[in-house]
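FORM 12-B: Structure-to-Sequence Request
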């Protein structure tokens, strides 16, 4: 799984028990297969998915074109940047996410192309696939492996992480740092790529790694020239006005993405299991996904459409290669089957319920220290 290059230091392995719930898995897979046979639908994109992808891309591109070509007051320019931020979050959740899970299309070239929309909006597709596919999905909510619950700056997301005095107030100040999430990807991807190499998380050759670094640098330069340079050269906007717009774009993106991702795992219900001293998690990966993940606001069709089915996180973790447009239907199958087999299944009916639970969890994380067994 990890590189054997002697120049890098691989991380310790974490393993799961062999699947002890084969009947549940077999029944669930059969019911999901029957759904696709009965409906005749592809497991990948539908015409509605193509339309959604186009809308999300336009939410980012169209306002930017207006900024570059139409003279408008400063306040309206800022609204255009705000809309761009909504579009960037939409691209990340509804286009890039499925593509980089190979769920957007059955054609892997299409998936790679759509996955590169991550680079178009300033982040990096390759880094994201390591962080999300390789670390988060395989080691969900495991402290030290899943970066989504790693401590960041002055935020604590895992009970196993060190508890500091200032964490007592993180439920109040966390939202500011959530807004910085998108900016941190734009500015921190090069360091992150080098860190993954040092830790042994990547297993590509030295030559391939150098090529990937070159592509990363070029894509960053292209993005910054486009998003900052073009408004400076093609409009009458002052440098500080462009910078304010850039910040509005990324702060909007950051707060949306952070809230959506946090309310699926850092809420009451989902667990944060720790491996034993031998690196063993004492349940199967299938059970692990059910124990560490939650759905929320499944009945809100507009929210489900915009967030790319990320409010159906249980279904996504069980079937990451299935396009998210199918998750509302699959959630009924998964929940029914889980209840029948007495398996864990967490769900918050309303967005506000999940939000309140996340707020309480942040508060508890700021006060409770759990000693590793």
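FORM 12-B RESPONSE
SEQUENCE OUT:
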């Amino acid at each position: 799984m990890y590189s054997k290059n002697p120049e890098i230091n691989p991380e310790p392995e974490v393993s799961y028990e062999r699947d002890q719930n084969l009947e549940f898995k077999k029944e669930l897979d059969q019911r999901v297969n029957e759904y696709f046979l009965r409906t005749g639908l592809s497991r990948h994109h539908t015409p509605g998915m193509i339309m959604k992808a186009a809308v999300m891309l336009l939410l980012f591109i169209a306002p930017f074109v207006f900024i570059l070509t139409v003279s408008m007051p400063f306040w309206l320019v800022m609204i255009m940047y705000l809309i761009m931020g909504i579009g960037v979050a939409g691209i990340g959740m509804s286009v890039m996410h499925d593509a980089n899970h190979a769920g957007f299309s059955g054609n892997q070239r299409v998936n790679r192309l759509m996955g590169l929309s991550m680079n178009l909006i300033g982040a990096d597709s390759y880094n994201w696939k390591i962080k999300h596919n390789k670390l988060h999905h395989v080691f969900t909510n495991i402290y030290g492996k899943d970066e989504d619950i790693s401590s960041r700056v002055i935020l604590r997301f895992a009970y196993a992480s060190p508890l500091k005095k200032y964490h007592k107030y993180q439920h109040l100040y966390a939202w500011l740092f959530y807004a910085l999430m998108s900016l941190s990807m734009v500015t921190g991807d090069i360091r992150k790529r080098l860190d993954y190499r040092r830790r042994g998380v990547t297993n590509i050759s030295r030559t391939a790694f150098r090529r990937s670094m070159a592509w990363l640098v070029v894509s960053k330069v292209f993005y910054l020239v486009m998003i900052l340079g073009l408004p400076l050269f093609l409009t009458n906007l002052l440098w500080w006005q462009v910078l304010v717009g850039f910040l509005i774009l990324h702060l909007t993106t950051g707060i949306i993405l952070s809230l959506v991702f946090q309310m699926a795992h850092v809420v009451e219900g989902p667990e944060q299991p720790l491996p034993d001293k031998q690196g063993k998690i004492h349940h199967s990966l299938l059970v692990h996904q059910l124990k560490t993940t939650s759905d929320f606001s499944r009945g809100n069709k507009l929210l489900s459409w915009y967030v790319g089915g990320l409010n159906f996180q249980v279904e996504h973790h069980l079937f990451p290669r299935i396009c998210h447009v199918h998750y509302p239907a699959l959630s009924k199958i998964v929940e029914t089957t889980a209840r029948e087999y007495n398996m864990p299944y967490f769900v918050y009916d309303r967005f506000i319920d999940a939000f309140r639970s996340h707020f309480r969890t942040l508060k508890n994380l700021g006060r409770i220290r759990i000693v590793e067994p």
